[in-house]
Amino acid sequence: MAETTAGETKNSRLRNFDFKTMGPAIALLILCIIGFSLNSAFLSEGNITNLLTRSAFIGIIAVGATFVITAGGIDLSVGSMAAVIAGIMIIVMNNAVETLGTGVATVLLGCGCSVILGLGAGWVNGFLTTKGKIEAFIVTLGTMGIFRSLVTYFADGGTLSLDFDLRGTYRPVYYEAFFGLPIPVWVFIIVSIAGWILLNRTAFGRYCTAIGSNEAVARYSAIKVDRIKTWTYVIQGLCVALATIIYVPRLGSASSSTGVLWELEAIAAVIIGGTVLKGGYGRIGGTILGALILTTIGNILNFTDMISNYLNGTMQGLIIIVAVWLQRADWGRKSSKE
Amino acid sequence: MAETTAGETKNSRLRNFDFKTMGPAIALLILCIIGFSLNSAFLSEGNITNLLTRSAFIGIIAVGATFVITAGGIDLSVGSMAAVIAGIMIIVMNNAVETLGTGVATVLLGCGCSVILGLGAGWVNGFLTTKGKIEAFIVTLGTMGIFRSLVTYFADGGTLSLDFDLRGTYRPVYYEAFFGLPIPVWVFIIVSIAGWILLNRTAFGRYCTAIGSNEAVARYSAIKVDRIKTWTYVIQGLCVALATIIYVPRLGSASSSTGVLWELEAIAAVIIGGTVLKGGYGRIGGTILGALILTTIGNILNFTDMISNYLNGTMQGLIIIVAVWLQRADWGRKSSKE
Amino acid sequence: MLDSVQAETPVLAAERVSKSFGAIPVLFSVSFDLRAGEVHALIGENGAGKSTLMKVLSGFHPATSGTLRVDGEEVTLPPNGQAEDMGIVLIHQELNLAEQMTVEENIFLGREQSRNGFLDRAAMTEAVRKMFLDVGLDISPKARISSLSIAEKQMVEIVKAMSRNARVLIMDEPTAVLTEAETTVFFAQVEKLKAKGTAIMFVSHKLQEVQAIADRVTILRDGQWIATKPTGEFTLDAMAQMMVGRELSDLYPPMNEADVDAERVLEIEGLTTQNIRNVSFDLRKGEVLGFSGLIGSGRTEVFEAICGLKDIDSGVIRVHGEEVRFASVADARDAGICYLTKDRKEKGLLLEQEMRPNMTLLALPRFVKGFMIDRDAEQEALARGIRRFDIRARDPKVKAGDLSGGNQQKLLLAKIMEADPKIVIIDEPTRGIDVGTKQQIYHFIAALAAEGMSVVVISSEMPEIIGVCHRVFVMRDGQIMGALTGDAINETEIVRYAAGLKGEKHHG
Amino acid sequence: DDKITIGVSYPTPTHAWAAGMNWHAEQAEKRLEALYPDVDLVLVNSPDPGAQASAIEDLVSVNQIDALVVLPFESEPLTDPVLNVKKTGALITVVDRGLSQPGIEDIYVAGNNPELGRVSAQYMKTRLKEGDNIVVLRGIPTLIDNERFDAFMAEIEGSGINVLDHKHANWNRDDGFEVMQDFLSRFPDIDAVWAQDDDIAIGVVAALKQAGRDGDGMFVVGGAGMKETIKSIMDGDELIPVDVLYPPSMIATAMDVTVNAFKSNGPVAGRYILGATLITPENAADFYFPDSPF
Ligand SMILES: Nc1ncnc2c1ncn2[C@@H]1O[C@H](COP(=O)(O)OP(=O)(O)OP(=O)(O)O)[C@@H](O)[C@H]1O
Ligand SMILES: Nc1ncnc2c1ncn2[C@@H]1O[C@H](COP(=O)(O)OP(=O)(O)OP(=O)(O)O)[C@@H](O)[C@H]1O
Ligand SMILES: [Mg+2]
Ligand SMILES: [Mg+2]
């Protein structure tokens, strides 16, 4: 899947590279121009805020996915993981209302619970992949099914709703702004920065890249491959937990339809951002742009009734393909020979 | 994801290898024993026939997916492709009833139409991947959305149904048996044999393996990499078309929920069968067993009400993971160092 | 014979060919010609542009300027090995086989034999078996490439190239990973091809080989053509001197006597793994210890086991007298033991990354300041490594995979030394390294030992073992056959042990 | 043996209404099996039409059912599989979505989808005047959604009320929230929202509150009869003043009728169509089941 990087000359790669880095940004810009030309309300403060806040979920999850994919893995379970974490979090908080009341303590308990579950679920994925020697695709396809069915089970097929009074306490985490930006956006920004530093400026990030490039080389270079790979899944789990913490106060509920297809969206955001699906090259900045691009596409489609509702998926698909094509194609030079 | 095959010594690989080949067969056997112990009707002729017939859809699609994956690609669009082909096929046949009547001619027209659409859709996926230089994941995620929304559009959000009289003509293709086996099973068998020969006994199969194994090596061996890769998607499209041809008479309709998640099932069948997700090693025989395993899991879960319906997904996930773990784990030798 | 050849037009010729990668020139107006029935050797320092010239001559790289002629006619060669159809075959310097596929599949890749549209596997397997018989190679055609040793892989490459019945056979360092015995077999094949009129172009850093097999020699230096002459007109020294551009003193450094009473830094007793049995030896401070033996004799496995890369069935490892068992390379590194792999492409370097991350990967914890990687320190390390090992990259941001083969090897050495090991195990230290640099590396090894470091050299090059080691162990079939010291270290003795003519299981 | 085996097949619950249905089915199973020891009810649910067809095949080949109660995922694809069951001589009860071929089912129990749309539109007309604006949030693109939507639009037609736009919110709270957010950014003047479904309505209300546009007599009409919604109607909520019933208990009704077909002497075959009642503060108490999950 990384065919574009193979067998090219250095020069073209350098030139491409700039385009690759700028590509997602340009694609996002074009989308914004389209959105604005459809309806000037697209650039209204309210809509921009909505857009950013919505991107936060997928974006935070995608930051975690960047690590997993860079290290050569894949995690299909994130959407279901978010759903089950949200579900358990709600159950725990509802039960804690009796003892802890409807104050901040209960919410903190819920958040703590979410983080622990995220770390645990990530660890399970990592453990099965590395020590169980099972392909990441299979492991996470399996846990995807497991998590999804667990939340259905807990919710009895329906919806788990947060205690009404508790919702009042927790609500601000989604709805309040802080220095003009909603809290989810702040979380997104912090996670992005932390992710960027971790991937680009620490030994851990270097190790992820090395493992994704060539596992044997990594092993011979004193990298504890299994441990690092497990960590990438744990980080992914943590990101899912954080995303869930800001998701739950939004509607105060979780059901078996929570987070459906988030895994594909997250992976798509990562790949649109320029990270290579086979591992060895990751870009957090690109991932963030990728998440924004995906959210913007959905937003734009809600802003126009020119297109039949039924064709939303067609537009989405076309835009994703074109957005990636814009950055992958060799502009300004003859295409390299097959 | 292929970490188990990397960096092992010759000896251990050979030992593993046999287990890998036998693994899926053993997993299937164990499942059958479980099924039989739950309910002896599991091994009744009727049930076995149902099972085989059901496996045919996913199995045929998975044979195509084996080529795509072996050559280092991935196709997420197959489920949606099946839906849209089924939809268009039904529209074409319904319209042809006026001119061609409700006889075999119309059905053949529909089948021809299906094959052409399958080849065309596969070619589009292949073309965008190779000439467009866009990651297969993105291309097929995009076409997945496009195909899915097209069928919704054609069906106007509802269901496209085959002309009632025509259904009578077409019905036997799914329901009739031929030498004791239902026709879909025969198609499955033929596709499997053809796929096996193509992968293991022709130059084309070798080229797929070589490309998945190392694209640069393949290119340096004067293999027309782009062309072969495109062909794998075309084969995948053809397989989807064949699966659709035997699917339509079963339910006589297509809607936006046709074929949902078939892509994951097909890929899972391929991986369970021992094909390496990163390419370079493909096994048609394993794929077929993988498809049977997946269908059997669903069948067994319909056989017992010991487990809450909501937990079906949990059982499915667990069984898939355990089935693969059984074949991947290093039996009878100490695990090689991380 | 030479005279008759000279009259013909060359089968393949390059005239004033230049090549740049982007803005970086690599070849400057080089001319080269190759005639039927001759072996034309190309020699030059690492990074001189030999591989690049060969790729230009076989169509893998388009030339930036200049003309190529086939049989005197100007041509543009097709890309990606399609020049094979014109009878021009290249063996790449870097192994170019599909790892998961079998030997037979690789040899016939791209030109499978079919009958009625189906592969004629029996015929192909049989053909491979026959080719292997010809070259005395004992590999099953059904073996997967990933299960072969590097030398075996190289032999497969050679057989693959020869099987193509080429008019022009271009071989980039085919002998770098071969032992002398295999080289002899290989040269016999070359002679046969030559007699059939094949034109052969060949790169080697082993100048004796060049002298033995080549009819003419062309020397490149820094991408410039220096000279083309019949081999007879060169002495070994002259070749080396013209390559390097300076006088070369002794290849091997003077050996200072080992201190027999020095501390034993590493003691191995009864080490047994899957492929090795009951290996015992010790290593003293300041000693250079050689490990010799035939390919696949298990030398690599001994040290991979010690460093935690292979499972150990039984045995005792003592470092500085303390019993240890390293669970991972990181543990070994922290205890001051580093192993430099011979497989730089699969296990040594991240080919898609630049030099800097490669350089510091093994010793990365040393470059962490606070929480983050200290990029300035990394840059210094890179500068240090480039200086110390004379790594020549015209562009410091080049990907490791685009470095010349010898420079990759040097980068790998630099990477290992960054970890500052007390005991360093170097597997095939000079694989693909030019004579000038070889000399530097030997002196470097001697200097390390003199500073009190202990060095293990695993090598299939006998002169190297003899030239730099204080003591030599010879392995065969997973066991140590004998130990040699002082004057006993000579080719005859080593060969006798390696071939199993002498020695029994040696303990300690 | 003379045990009466009845298979009950319906889609896997993925939203609250279906969960309510599942709950009612399970309650009915317990109740009926306790009441009649010789009756065995086998409940299976399936995630898609193909799987449901498979599950029905399995009910025949494995459980050898005497009767089938089926809530088809979709009408068309399940017509043939159910017809096959019919051929084994089993009694067929179809719930909610009719099969595409008449005469297969012996008993038909259903809600009324067009009626739901129509009743909703009629209520809109009582509250709004000419020139007022509404937006519509639809369900998952399916026949049900089309029936409801088409009937709604037909009823609104000519009233002078503007339907600004309609988007699919997939009977899902999250989608309801996001689509409504975008409607609010896009249209400065919205007087009412038809959300069609109580889950969507919850998302819509959250979006309205976030944007601070929940005042000025703006209101939302959902549908189905979720207990929380009914409760708030009882409490006189201004934002969701009414609801339109689409009872998830219809499956239990169908099971009752089917068992009765074996147990009672009188004929029970026929069609049982449940109305789409408008729930208002006046009658809300009649539809409030606090123990149901829905
Ligand atoms: N694809 C490439 N992109 C950029 N630079 C390259 C590329 N290939 C080779 N080079 C550079 O060209 C120069 C010559 O390399 P080449 O491989 O021809 O040397 P060589 O003579 O074969 O050396 P060695 O003996 O070490 O194999 C080196 O500086 C190398 O880094
Ligand atoms: N008898 C054998 N059966 C299976 N694998 C073997 C056998 N002997 C060696 N090997 C494997 O082949 C590889 C080559 O062996 P090893 O590298 O230890 O030998 P070496 O003496 O270093 O030879 P080389 O000159 O090829 O480096 C190792 O990975 C080893 O595990
Ligand atoms: Mg070279
Ligand atoms: Mg029961």
Describe this protein's structure.
- The complex is a heterotetramer, with 2 copies of chain A (338 residues), 1 copy of chain C (508 residues) and 1 copy of chain D (294 residues).
- Chain A is an all-alpha fold and 338 residues long.
- Chain A is built from 14 helices and 4 strands.
- Chain A is globular.
- Chain A starts with 9 loop residues before the first helix and ends in a 10-residue tail after the last helix.
- With 508 residues, chain C is of the alpha/beta class.
- Helix content of chain C is 32%, strand content 25%.
- Chain D is an alpha/beta fold and 294 residues long.
- In chain D, helix 2 runs parallel beside helix 3.
- Chain D is elongated and about 65 Å long.
- Chain D starts with a strand and ends in a 15-residue tail after the last strand.
- The structure holds adenosine-5'-triphosphate (2 copies) and magnesium ion (2 copies).
- One adenosine-5'-triphosphate binds next to helix 2 and helix 14 of chain C.
> Which CATH C-level class of chain A is it?
Mainly Alpha
Q: Taking strands numbered 1, 2, ... along the chain, how are they ordered across the largest sheet of chain A?
A: 1-4
3D shape of chain C: globular
The value of Rg of chain C in angstroms is: 23 Å
Break the fold down into its secondary structure elements and pairings.
The complex is a heterotetramer, with 2 copies of chain A (338 residues), 1 copy of chain C (508 residues) and 1 copy of chain D (294 residues).
Chain A: H1 10-38, H2 45-70, H3 78-100, H4 104-130, H5 136-154, E1 159-161, H6 164-170, H7 172-175, E2 177-178, E3 181-182, H8 183-201, H9 203-213, H10 215-220, H11 225-251, E4 253-255, H12 262-272, H13 284-302, H14 312-328
Antiparallel strand pairs in A: 1-4, 2-3
Chain C: H1 2-7, E1 12-21, E2 24-34, E3 39-44, H2 50-57, E4 65-70, E5 73-75, E6 88-91, H3 103-107, E7 114-115, E8 118-119, H4 121-134, H5 150-162, E9 168-172, H6 180-195, E10 199-203, H7 207-213, E11 216-221, E12 224-230, H8 236-244, E13 264-272, E14 279-284, E15 288-293, H9 299-306, E16 314-319, E17 322-324, H10 329-334, E18 337-340, H11 344-348, H12 355-360, E19 368-369, E20 372-373, H13 375-389, H14 405-418, E21 423-427, H15 435-450, E22 454-458, H16 462-468, E23 471-476, E24 479-485, H17 491-498
Helix pairs in contact in C: 13-14
Chain D: E1 4-11, H1 16-35, E2 39-46, H2 49-63, E3 67-70, H3 75-87, E4 91-95, E5 107-110, H4 113-127, E6 133-138, H5 143-156, E7 162-168, H6 173-186, E8 192-194, H7 198-211, E9 219-221, H8 227-234, E10 243-244, H9 250-263, E11 270-273, E12 278-279
Parallel strand pairs in D: 1-2, 1-3, 3-4, 4-5, 5-11, 6-7, 6-8, 8-9
Antiparallel strand pairs in D: 10-12
Helix pairs in contact in D: 1-9, 2-3, 4-5, 6-7
Bound molecules: adenosine-5'-triphosphate (ATP) (2 copies) and magnesium ion (2 copies).
One adenosine-5'-triphosphate is lined by residues 21, 26, 44, 46-52, 93, 392-394, 398, 402-407, 432, 434 of chain C.
Keywords (chain C): ATP-binding, Cell membrane, Membrane, Nucleotide-binding, Repeat, Sugar transport, Translocase, Transport
Subunit structure (chain C): The complex is composed of two ATP-binding proteins (LsrA), two transmembrane proteins (LsrC and LsrD) and a solute-binding protein (LsrB).
Protein name (chain C): Autoinducer 2 import ATP-binding protein LsrA
